């Protein structure tokens, strides 16, 4: 089949590689000029673009991405490691309070890939550039869909600022700001089913390079802590880089000062763990700011009927979730695999393809969207109470036989089995309910928490925080 992929970022390039290797002819159309730079550092230096500001934000790549990549694109996985991406075994993520560090069955599925996002895109871009069957056209903007009218319309290609392109299938990988709904309306399609849940945070982030010498922890450390007034995070990166972020409420105007590197650094220094890392690394970028972060889910089958045929979507064009949980790339890679499997199973039946892709979203995406929406609702209510004086949140409903992510995360600070459960949920292995409803794990987490909650992360008082923000 001739497949036109709209968008040449992580989802578009991954889909192009997997589909080309399944025998399809793929054209990728990307509006930005993302021609791969000479090396990873040049790629990082040129990564900031207004249309995709998340590319310079901290990223970590979790279990599902790693697992599917190794299975479907093993050379890209090897290329990531060759480019300086580090595979971090689970033991490197264990907090000091977790004293039982022995390896358990299943740990081999849970390593993280520690990297800057620009490095992932650079490796994918180079692989796509040399892949027979993939034609990447940078600097070409899609402005609409070409379709045969009908209910549903049959998509046959795209309009671009360089003319029309026709194909057997179109794959939408236009990301979190996807313009595709407008294009669907223009061809007479019913609107997709959109669900949205507040994630409510803004990201202030910066990249650093480690100096040679002793470090306060493992260079592949990823520590994200939900403090009373903001979330703070540190992520290892490729090639001795570290990535740091503050994620306050988007409505918390005090944090606008954190655009200034002095205030950003001063806030980090209010938390001992992060202060100790600042002493061993130097900034290599400015502070990047990103707001407008939401949990969103978009379904192309509504009331059991496809809204269009000949059109599929993968990546953020399907679902976005709270970035502090780092699941976007895993959802994207799972979606790429689902797309390839769907086309293999139903090569000549567009209707069956649409239904199969929607079933894959129902199985592999929607449960994680719902889980994130529930976790964020609790966290946001607590932040809004503390920061904005909103009414206190009600206690989370106790559901018999089930634990929440918050309970799991608390128990994971001290219990090795809860720790694995948390990383299975983080890495999207199976479904959330496989962990939250597992009777043995539920009993164990309750027992751990009944023995006393783990010590909270020491954090700044309000006055210390506000002094730092005025630095
Ligand atoms: C702050 C932040 C931090 C994150 N951290 C993590 C993390 O730690 N781990 C993780 O797994 N995920 C993380 N994510 C999520 C991850 O970045 C996304 O899931 C991922 O970028 C999705 O890739 P994509 O290719 O679907 O979309 P995008 O990367 O947004 O790419 C969409 C592409 O489509 C192109 N495009 C759009 N419109 C057109 C058009 N009309 N014509 C041609 N081209 C077009 C754009 O130029 C762009 O290149 C984070 C997200 C954010 C916002």
Write a brief caption for the model.
This protein has helices spanning 10-21, 40-45, 63-72, 74-82, 117-129, 180-186, 261-268, 272-278, 328-345, 350-364, 366-388, 405-412, 416-426, 432-436, 439-450, 462-469, and strands spanning 2-6, 25-30, 60-61, 86-88, 112-114, 134-138, 142-148, 154-160, 163-166, 169-172, 193-198, 203-210, 222-226, 231-236, 241-247, 281-283, 288-290, 294-299, 301-302, 305-306, 311-313, 319-320. It is of the alpha+beta class and 471 residues long. The longest helix is centred in the C-terminal third of the chain and has 23 residues, at 366-388.
Which key phrases capture this entry?
22 strands, five-stranded parallel sheet, six-stranded antiparallel sheet, 2 domains, alpha+beta, binds flavin-adenine dinucleotide, 16 helices, FAD/NAD(P)-binding domain
Return the average pLDDT rounded to an integer.
96
CATH topology value of the largest domain: FAD/NAD(P)-binding domain
Question: How many structural domains in the coordinates?
Answer: 2
CATH-defined superfamily of the largest domain: FAD/NAD(P)-binding domain
Largest sheet: 6 strands, antiparallel
> What is the number of E strands?
22
The top-level CATH class of the largest domain is Alpha Beta
Strand coverage percent? 15-25%
Number of helical segments with 4 or more residues: 16
Shape: globular
Alpha-carbon Rg, integer: 22 Å
What's the architecture of the largest domain, going by CATH?
3-Layer(bba) Sandwich
Between the first and last Cα atoms, what is the distance in angstroms? 58 Å
Which small compounds were modeled alongside the protein? flavin-adenine dinucleotide
User: In terms of structural class, how would the helical and strand content be classed?
Assistant: alpha+beta
Helical proportion?
25-40%
pLDDT < 50 stretches: none
């Amino acid at each position: 089949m001739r497949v036109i992929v709209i968008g040449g970022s992580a989802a578009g390039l991954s889909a192009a590689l997997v589909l080309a290797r399944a025998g399809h002819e793929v054209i990728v159309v990307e509006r930005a000029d993302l021609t791969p730079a000479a090396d990873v550092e040049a790629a990082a230096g040129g990564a900031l673009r207004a249309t995709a500001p998340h590319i310079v934000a901290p990223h970590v790549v979790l279990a599902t991405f790693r697992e599917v990549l190794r299975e479907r694109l093993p050379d890209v996985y090897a290329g990531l490691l060759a480019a300086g991406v580090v595979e971090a075994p689970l033991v490197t993520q264990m907090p000091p309070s977790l004293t039982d560090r022995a390896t358990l069955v299943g740990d081999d599925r849970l390593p993280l890939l520690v990297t800057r996002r620009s490095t992932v895109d650079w490796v994918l871009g180079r692989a796509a550039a040399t892949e027979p069957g993939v034609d990447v056209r940078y600097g070409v903007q899609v402005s609409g869909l070409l379709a045969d009218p009908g209910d549903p319309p049959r998509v046959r290609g795209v309009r671009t600022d360089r003319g029309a392109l026709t194909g057997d299938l179109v794959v939408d990988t236009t990301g979190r700001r996807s313009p595709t709904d407008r294009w669907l309306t223009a061809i007479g399609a019913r609107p997709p089913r959109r669900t949205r849940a507040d994630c409510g945070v803004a990201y202030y982030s910066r990249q650093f390079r480690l100096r040679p010498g002793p470090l306060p922890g493992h260079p592949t450390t990823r520590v994200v802590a939900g403090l009373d007034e903001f979330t703070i995070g540190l992520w290892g990166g490729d090639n001795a880089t570290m990535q740091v972020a503050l994620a306050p409420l988007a409505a918390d105007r005090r944090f606008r000062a954190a655009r200034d590197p002095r205030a950003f650094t001063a806030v980090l220094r209010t938390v001992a763990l992060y202060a100790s890392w600042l002493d061993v690394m130097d900034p290599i970028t400015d502070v990047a700011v990103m707001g407008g972060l939401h949990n969103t889910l978009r379904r192309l089958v509504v009331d059991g009927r496809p809204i269009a045929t000949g059109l599929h979507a993968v990546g953020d064009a399907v679902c976005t979730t709270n970035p502090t949980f780092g699941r976007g790339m895993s959802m994207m890679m799972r979606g790429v695999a689902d797309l390839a499997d769907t086309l293999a199973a139903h090569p000549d039946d567009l209707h069956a393809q649409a239904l199969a892709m929607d079933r894959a979203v129902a199985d592999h995406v929607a449960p994680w969207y719902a889980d994130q929406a529930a976790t964020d609702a609790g966290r946001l209510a607590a932040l809004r109470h503390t920061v904005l004086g909103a009414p206190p949140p009600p206690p989370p409903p106790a559901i018999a036989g089930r634990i929440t992510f918050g309970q799991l995360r608390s128990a994971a600070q001290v219990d090795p089995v809860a720790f694995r459960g948390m990383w299975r949920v983080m890495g999207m292995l199976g479904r959330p309910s496989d962990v939250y409803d597992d009777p043995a794990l539920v009993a164990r987490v309750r027992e751990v928490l009944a023995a006393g909650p783990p010590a909270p992360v020491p954090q700044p008082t309000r006055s210390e925080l506000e002094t730092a923000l005025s630095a």
